[in-house]
Amino acid sequence: MKLKVVIHTAEEGGFWAEVPAIPGCATQGDTFEELLQNIYEAVDGCLSVDEADLELDSDAQIVEIAV
Fold first, then answer.
1. What is the pTM of this model?
2. Disulfide check for 46: which of 5, 25, 31, 57 has CB 3.0–4.6 Å away?
């Protein structure tokens, strides 16, 4: 999966980034390298789903896909 990330210079120093394709998915970092690492963690957190919290019909299935 490829995602576009918008990277901003933070007024207080460092950087912050947002992922427009995932509303509310944003992160920050003191250095560009830290920001890149945090982006991966933020996307993973924004896309993760706790299956125990899902309310499924008795005939529903959970599948995982890669895009």
1. 0.77
2. 25
